[in-house]
Design brief:
The complex is a heterodimer.
Chain A (H helix, E strand, L loop, with lengths): L1 H24 L10 E7 L13 H9 L2 E7 L2 H10 L6 E2 L3 H9 L3 E2 L28 E14 L22 E4 L2 H12 L8 H14 L3 E5 L2 H8 L4 E5 H8 L5 E4 L5 E11 L5 H12 L1 H11 L6 H4 L22 E3 L5 H16 L5 H32 L1
Parallel strand pairs in A: 1-2, 1-3, 6-7, 6-8, 10-11
Antiparallel strand pairs in A: 4-10, 5-8, 5-9, 5-10
Chain B lengths: L5 H24 L16 H8 L1 H34 L3 H16 L2 H18 L8 H26 L4 H7 L4 H12 L1 H17 L2 H6 L7 H6 L9 H36 L1
Helix pairs in contact in B: 1-12, 2-12, 3-6, 3-9, 4-6, 6-9, 7-8
The chains are: A alpha/beta, B mainly alpha.
């Protein structure tokens, strides 16, 4: 009897835990058939069927009958402008942490009905309730990444573990830094032990001095060119994202990667539903779909960034399963901090310091001298020709 | 013919090198078997295969073509009519005034045109209560706007070249005014119309800045798609696509030039006879 009771109890527990999940899975979405959703995502940020991967959007269309209008942006700021202009209605956007903070503050994104997203249980707890969305009402994490230092083992001796490698005079002319102010300043701020979200002007000046000291050693400030230069061995040291290192490593196995011991910045790109969404229910269905194991796995393989989805991390088919770079163990996990949205004054200060850094030095004076002398010579030439014309004309008078 | 001097040969070679070496490198790396732009690992057609599997890119390319063709045709029609009208204007101040106004979209920095167009569309959209006003039609209007001055500028000189009494002569010989334009004036300015159309087409094809501001969630053009690939690396199937576009345009241009060359030769022969 006891056994029977036990089994019944077990069944009840199972039924109780399974039923809500099933109810949501099987919720009737047939009325959404034929509708459309507008998805706005980073470029190259979804598995799209290249190299025989899963075509995520096509699969969603096939399963639900909802048409996906998929467009891409290149930066959080450009995405923000498009959303803020009000001329375009998106149902899904995937911005980064600090931008989500701003979007929530300006009420450009709306609360998500999590009862429509049962797969949310796949998300690891450490990526819930993050600073930009403390009660987890607006966003669902999509990808996670950290900045680290990439170096060429044929050039760099030993096993570096600190940001100081990027200030090492031994490797002068082999070092590259980010070509955008926020990321570049962050490298100096971590190195000096400063807060990357500081609003104190003195902190930024200190970071500026460091970058200025680094400048003579820097080969170039790069964004996309980094792949080319690191793979071909043209430069030996740079700071970049862990996921991108993996794709460089595929082409040049001399490269190595580490997280600096001083700490580094982390980002989370999360899925949000803009306030202007015209098809919120379908958008939630899409989010739920992205969190499903097979879809999330395909995306994690394609994008190469770390996923916050635990069903993927534990999946034996996942080629980065247990990868120490994407998923460092608790002991190896560096100190991390998120970028916060900077107030406009700090932003202004940062960009003006950045401009000073880039203009400082002699690289532009040559251009100015050249331009000015060109102008002077051409003006002199014009005057000379005119005067000669006059003189010649005067002969005929 | 005089023999070319060495410095001038070097100069010409340099000009061609700066123009075509980048294209050549893209073409070479489109056959790379890995996705690197720094290391050439082997010859393969992999990226060409990838390209045709990449539905979003093909769709973006298709969108770009549709937009370029429709906007180029529209701006050529409007531009030709405008040029005919401007040519007929008698008062010179009026004429130069109109020309200045039509040239403004050309002189204006693209970013200003883009932002102001977006504001205009959004304003009209909210005025008419249309949700998500940005899309194909806003792109279309913007592209017609910025390619119009180039069409007019290409046709005006042709109109000035032809004898102003030509149309009148045709009417004297029994043409109705409309027929005179169709049968006499339009054939005379045809080269101008053609070059105006080609200008409008290529401008629309590779415009990024204005398109960026006025495009919406349902219609993305190829330049915007390529530009947004900067978070990750630009995939080499873009090189494959650029190579294909380059080769197709090259072949088209060679054909057009050969055709016009033939035309000129036969004209010369006719003149001799």
């Amino acid at each position: 009897m006891k056994k029977v009771m036990c089994i019944i109890a077990c069944l009840l527990v199972c039924a109780l835990s399974v039923v809500p999940a099933f109810a949501a899975e099987n919720k009737d979405y047939s009325h959404l058939k034929g509708t459309e959703i507008n998805v706005y995502n980073w470029g190259e940020y979804i598995s799209d069927g290249a190299d025989d991967t899963l075509d995520v959007n096509a699969l969603f269309e096939e399963e639900t009958g909802i048409k996906v209008n998929y467009t891409t942006f290149d930066s959080n700021e450009n995405m923000y402008n498009k959303l803020k202009s009000g001329g375009a209605d998106y149902d899904i956007v995937i911005p980064s942490d600090y931008m989500i903070e701003r979007l929530i503050a300006e009420e450009l994104v709306q609360k998500i009905d999590f009862s429509n997203i049962p797969n949310y249980s796949n998300i690891m707890d450490e990526y819930k309730n993050l600073y930009f969305d403390p009660n987890n009402e607006y966003s669902v994490p999509y990808n996670v990444g950290m900045v680290g230092v990439i170096y060429n083992t044929t050039v760099v001796e030993g096993e570096p573990d600190s940001w100081s490698l990027m200030w090492d005079e031994k490797y002068s002319g082999q070092i590259m830094n980010f070509n955008n102010p926020r990321d570049a300043f962050a490298t100096a701020q971590w190195y000096a032990g400063l807060d990357i979200n500081s609003t104190n002007g003195a902190d930024w000046d200190k970071a500026y001095e460091l970058l200025k000291a680094q400048k003579p050693l820097v080969q170039s400030y790069v964004m996309d060119e980094v792949y080319n230069k690191m793979e071909s061995g043209e430069a030996a040291i740079c700071a970049y994202y862990a996921g991108d290192f993996l794709s460089m490593y595929d082409n040049n196995s001399d490269l190595a990667f580490y997280y600096p011991k001083e700490g580094t910045n982390i980002f989370v790109d999360s899925i949000c539903i803009p306030t202007s969404s015209q098809n919120k229910e379908a958008a939630e269905l899409y989010i739920n779909f992205l969190l499903r194991e097979d879809v999330a796995l395909a995306n994690a393989e394609y994008i190469c960034y770390a996923t916050p989805n635990k069903t993927v991390i534990n999946n034996d088919d996942y080629s980065f399963k247990g990868n120490e770079i994407l998923y460092p163990s608790k002991e190896d996990m560096p100190v991390t901090n998120y970028f916060h949205h900077l107030d406009s004054q700090t932003q202004l200060m940062m960009t003006s310091l950045w401009d000073n850094l880039k203009i400082d030095g002699n690289e532009n004076t040559g251009i100015y001298i050249g331009l000015i002398s060109f102008c002077v010579i051409s003006i002199a030439l014009v005057i000379f020709v005119k005067v000669r014309q006059r003189i010649r004309a005067s002969y005929y008078d | 013919m005089k023999k070319a001097k060495l410095p001038s040969t070097i100069y010409v070679l340099l000009v061609f090198a700066f123009l075509y070496v980048p294209m050549l490198i893209v073409a070479v790396y489109s056959f790379n078997s890995s996705n690197s732009t720094g290391v050439f690992e082997g010859f393969s057609f992999r990226w060409y295969q990838e390209l045709f599997k990449d539905e979003e890119t093909i769709k973006a390319f298709y969108n770009t073509l549709i937009l370029a063709i429709t906007s180029a045709v529209t701006s050529t029609v409007i531009g030709t009519l405008a040029a005919l009208g401007i040519d007929k204007m008698k008062k010179s101040w009026r004429r130069s005034g109109i020309m200045t106004i039509t040239n403004i979209p050309m002189m204006n920095p693209e970013i200003v045109t883009g932002v102001s167009m977006m504001l205009l569309f959004v304003f009209i959209g909210s005025f008419l209560r249309i949700n998500g006003v940005l899309g194909f039609w806003t792109l279309f209007i913007a592209h017609v706007t910025f390619s119009l001055p180039y069409v007019i500028l290409n046709i005006m000189p042709k109109l000035e070249q032809i004898n102003p009494n030509l149309a009148e002569a045709a009417q004297d010989l029994g043409c109705a005014p409309g027929k005179a334009i169709r049968k006499v004036v339009l054939p005379a300015i045809k080269p101008g119309i053609m070059s105006g159309f080609i200008m409008a087409f290529t401008l629309s094809l590779d415009d990024f800045i204005i398109s960026y501001f006025v495009s919406g969630p349902k219609f993305q053009t190829l330049p915007i798609r390529i530009y947004s690939m900067t978070k990750k690396r630009v995939t080499p199937d873009m090189y494959a696509l650029s190579t294909i576009i380059f080769v197709v345009i090259l072949i088209l241009l060679v054909l057009v030039n050969m055709n016009s060359l033939k035309g000129e030769q036969s004209k010369e022969k006719g003149a001799v006879k």
